[in-house]
Structure to design on (230 residues):
């Protein structure tokens, strides 16, 4: 018998002896499977030794109904995804609500938008970089800053905007009592205002340190909620 053949036979024997010795030193014995059954009904092992996972038993009819509502996974991933709004689209939305994008006034919304193109993820053609797809924290913060600065312009220009005029009457963002109006929110967001929109808007104005700040924050918050995933 060659040395290599002897090694092949001896190695498994040594491993078995070492395992038996280790168990003997600890004084522990492995419990048979029938005395230590695995948990049933879900994929979790226990609260003390693993993460808790949801059960694996899924009603096929519930799954079918969910697929009917949401569509196939490939389709749902596209429809329910939340990419960053394009830089040019941000400018289009601001301009459509009365913001002067050519403004040179310091800290104006138009100037912030123009000078923050890289922070907003705009494409850098000189560096051969495409536009960012994901909404980063820096981009979201800068976008909210722009919305806050744009709010006074939007509030003042809303009644004169053609898209906010119905039967010759322009919508007002706030009424004489400094309460948000449904027509104003609908013009701001481009969708009919809901009771939740009105409640959020009015609470923001009421809880602010003063009315003007409350109006600016309310408008900015509604815009941020409509155009980001936050």
């Amino acid at each position: 018998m060659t040395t290599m053949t002897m090694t092949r036979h001896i190695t498994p024997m040594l491993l078995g002896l070492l395992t038996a010795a280790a168990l003997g030193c600890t004084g522990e014995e492995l419990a048979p499977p029938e005395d230590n059954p695995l948990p049933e009904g879900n994929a979790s092992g226990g609260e003390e030794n693993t993460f808790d996972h949801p059960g694996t038993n899924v009603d096929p009819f519930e799954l079918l109904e969910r697929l009917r509502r949401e569509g196939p996974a490939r389709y749902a991933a596209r429809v329910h995804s939340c990419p960053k709004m394009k830089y040019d689209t941000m400018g289009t939305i601001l301009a459509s609500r009365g913001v002067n994008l050519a403004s040179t006034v310091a800290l104006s919304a138009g100037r912030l938008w123009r000078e923050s193109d890289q922070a907003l993820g705009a494409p850098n053609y000189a560096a051969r970089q495409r536009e960012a797809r994901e909404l980063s924290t820096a981009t979201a913060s800068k976008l909210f800053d722009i919305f806050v600065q744009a709010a006074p312009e939007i509030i003042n220009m809303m009644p004169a905007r053609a898209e906010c005029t119905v039967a010759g009457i322009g919508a007002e963002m706030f009424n004489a009592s400094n309460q948000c109006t449904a027509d104003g929110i609908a013009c701001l967001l481009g969708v009919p205002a809901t009771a939740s929109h009105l409640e959020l808007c009015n609470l923001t104005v009421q809880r602010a340190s003063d009315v003007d700040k409350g109006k600016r924050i309310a408008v900015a918050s509604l815009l941020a909620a409509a155009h980001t995933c936050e």
Q: What stands out?
A: The longest helix spans residues 3-26.
